[in-house]
Write a structure and sequence with these properties.
The radius of gyration is 34 Å and the shape is rod-shaped. It has two domains: 53 residues; 127 residues, Immunoglobulin-like (Sandwich), CATH 2.60.40. It has 187 residues and is of the alpha+beta class. It contains three helices and nine strands; from the N terminus they run ααβββββββαββ. The mean pLDDT is 89. Strands 3, 4, 6, 8 and 9 form a five-stranded antiparallel β-sheet that branches. Strands 1-2-7-5 form a four-stranded antiparallel β-sheet.
Amino acid sequence: MQELIELLRSEPNAANAFGALASAAAAILALFVSCASVWISISAARSQREHNRLSVRPLAEVTVADYEDSLRVKLTNNGTGPLIVLAVTVSDGSKALDSLIEWMPSLPEHRPWNTFSHALCRRSLQPGAEIVLLELAEHDGEINFPQCRDRVRQALAPLTVNIEYTDIYGTMLPPCRKDLSWFRRNL
């Protein structure tokens, strides 16, 4: 170290050269840090955009309920963002219709359905919400409910429900399919 100091004292041009090299090294280091900062900023922006898209992603689920006193098929949004239904298709393998109610037999003695939904195209569903596609529940004192229930079970058993949907960004998500053969188990 002592020799370096002696060299700088004796040769003024060596001191200038050393200062120029140090300045160039600092400039190269500053350029490297700047490039690294730009790369980190771009990566963070991409990650944030992906996080934002995933934080409002819907997740469709078709659930069934088959009890002695009620039958139900519903669509639920188990995701974290709004679900936009593009199409509901109910099929028996050879023919497809827009809703479950179109496949159902007429009920005896003008018995009404508790609730049902027709075509759901362009309907939105907030996170945690549900749409009842079809429900039949026993009324107090009803004596012919077992026959109604079994007719509906027979009609539901061969069907498959297919839900096509998007998120709020218009991204097509994998369709939700539910085979309704569960209703066959009590026939």
